[in-house]
Structures are given as structure tokens and as C-alpha cells.
Design brief:
By secondary structure, the protein is an alpha/beta fold. Helices cover about 35% and strands about 20% of the residues. The chain has helices at about 75-80, 105-115, 130-140, 145-160, 175-185, 205-220, 235-240, 260-265, 275-285; strands spanning about 30-40, 50-60, 65-70, 90-95, 100, 115-120, 195, 230, 245-250, 255-260. The protein has a six-stranded mixed beta sheet, sandwiched between helices. Strands 2-1-4-5 form a four-stranded antiparallel beta sheet, covered by helices on one side. It is globular and about 65 Å long.
Length: about 300
């Protein structure tokens, strides 16, 4: 596969026809991240698990992709593969038109500087103030102008609704405030791609909705960089609110792929007798029901 192949979106993912026809758009569409027949497993023998199996996925620049699915189906592993934090056992991962497996360590570092990841717990450094946490990526990238750094820190904290918190310690923040501070750190360098790993885990519904609004606001504020957002979540309210496109993973592969409206429709009303197994899986997950084709372990 050549780099030229990455300039436009390809055929429907994993060979499945899209559930809804694509919206016509005359603008050229660029793939910023591509997973090409990627598999990733852990362990060996009878204990081996393979959360990602022959996964093919194109992520379009400037859009928000949401990844949903039951626990243990490879969502967070997929994010780490995209960022080059894990190497696939099979297949290839591409970022910005280049194959990650062919990159030198220096090239990988450069690629990662164009991306940012918001981890589940925020991953703030406990020994640093909030301001020092937000400044950390800028200093790590060699910025030495302290006035510039502190100006950006102040602006990013204001942007996420935490003005004047530079001198606070992470231990002084609530769970929602920690998520906001971590997001301020993630966008400090104005990345081209932001990956959110379960951004609303452990938050109440009101705070979860506030985080969803923050994701939307952040995407809008970085529009000049044509920022791409990739969000892993179990929260269907958040998924439907922020997504341009939602994919559902189960068994390590894609079982659903479409706009939020597809998931809303499958979660409402009754399914016809001829409904596909994939539609039944999506409906079960969206409605949060134990009975259905998705196997649950109590």
C-alpha cells in the first residue's frame, strides 16, 4: 500500500456495507490515521487473548470518531496502536500518510508531538502544580520562553473552565476538574489529533455532559488546525452528542459503523424479524440490555 492510497477514504470498513448511505461532500477527504488489517494479542497458549483482530479503519481528518463497545473489546488497545504505544502483531498502522513500522524513533517522536492523548484517569503528575502539568509538554518539546509558556497555560486553563488554578495541586481538584486540567495539558501544543480514552469514567451524568460539551468546544477551538478527535467511551449520550461517526467494536472487530442517527434509530422502537446480528448487537449495547447476542459475564 502506497502513501497515495491514504489520500482519500477507501471502501467500507472490514468489508461491511455502510448501514446508511454516505453524505455527499465535494471537499477532498484526507485519512489522518489508517489501521490496515491490524491484529494485536497478549499472552500465549491457552491464556492468550486477542482484543484486536484483523481490524481495518480509516480516520478522516477534521472529524470526530467515537469508538464504543463492551469492556475488553479492544477500544483502548486501538488508541494505543494509533499512537504507536503498541506494535501490531499483524497488519500496519499509518499516521499522516506514513507507516509507523517504517519510522525511526525520531520520526515516531515527531509523529507523537502532532497528537495528544487524554488518559482515563487524567494522568496528572501529582508532584506538579496544575500549571506545571499543563506546561510540561511545551517544556518537553524545547520551549524555553517562560512568559510564552505561562501565557499559554493561562489561556488553556481558561479554555477548559479552570481559570486561576495554576498554583493548585492535583489533589485539590475534583474528578471533573482533573479531567479538565488533563485536557488543558493535552491541547497546550495545539495537536492535530486528540485521543480521548473514556473521558467520562467515574463522573456523574451532569459532569459527563459538561465534558461532552468541552470536547465539542475544544474541537471547535482547534478548527484552524483541522483537528481530528477520537473518543473511546461507554457513554452513549456522550457518543451521540460529539460524534460525526461511531464505530462499535465487538470480538476485536467492527460490528457497527455509521452516524449517530443510526445508533439512535436502532436503540428505539422494535427491530424487524430479518434484522441482522450486527443490528441486534448495536441495539443491545445502546439500550444496555443483558439479553442479546453480546455475551456478558456477571
Amino acid at each position: 500500500m502506497s502513501a497515495d492510497d491514504l489520500e482519500t477514504l477507501g471502501t467500507p470498513q472490514n468489508g461491511h456495507e455502510p448501514a446508511l448511505p454516505p453524505v455527499k461532500d465535494s471537499r477532498p477527504r484526507e485519512v489522518v490515521i489508517r489501521l490496515d488489517n491490524v491484529s494485536k494479542g497478549f499472552g500465549s497458549g491457552a491464556k492468550r487473548i486477542e482484543p484486536v483482530k484483523s481490524l481495518s479503519l480509516d480516520v478522516e481528518r477534521g472529524k470526530t470518531l467515537v469508538i464504543i463497545g463492551p469492556s475488553g473489546t479492544g477500544k483502548s488497545v486501538t488508541l494505543r496502536l494509533m499512537l504507536g504505544l503498541l506494535d501490531p502483531d499483524h497488519g500496519e498502522v499509518y499516521a499522516f500518510g506514513k507507516k509507523l513500522s517504517a519510522m525511526s524513533n525520531q520520526e515516531l517522536g515527531g509523529m507523537r508531538r502532532r497528537m495528544a492523548m487524554l488518559f482515563q484517569g487524567g494522568a496528572l503528575f501529582d508532584s506538579m502544580t496544575v500549571g506545571e502539568n499543563v506546561a510540561f509538554p511545551m517544556r518537553s518539546m524545547g520551549e524555553r520562553d517562560e512568559d510564552k509558556i505561562m501565557s499559554i497555560v493561562s489561556e488553556r486553563l481558561r479554555q477548559v473552565g479552570l481559570p486561576g488554578t495554576e498554583d493548585k495541586m492535583p489533589s485539590e481538584l475534583s474528578g471533573g476538574m482533573k479531567k479538565r486540567a488533563a485536557l488543558a495539558r493535552s491541547i497546550a501544543t495545539r495537536p492535530e489529533v486528540i485521543l480521548y480514552d473514556e473521558p467520562t469514567t467515574g463522573l456523574d451524568p451532569i459532569m459527563s455532559d459538561a465534558i461532552a460539551d468541552l470536547i465539542l468546544d475544544t474541537h471547535e477551538s482547534l478548527k484552524d488546525t483541522d483537528v481530528t478527535s477520537i473518543v473511546v467511551t461507554h457513554d452513549m449520550h456522550v457518543a451521540e452528542k460529539v460524534a460525526d461517526r461511531i464505530i462499535m467494536l465487538y470480538g476485536g472487530t467492527i460490528v457497527g459503523d455509521g452516524p449517530p442517527d443510526l445508533y439512535r434509530r436502532l436503540g428505539q422502537g422494535s427491530l424487524p424479524d430479518h434484522a441482522s446480528e450486527m443490528d441486534k448487537m448495536i441495539r443491545q449495547f445502546v439500550r444496555g440490555e443483558a439479553d442479546g447476542p453480546i455475551q456478558t459475564v456477571a
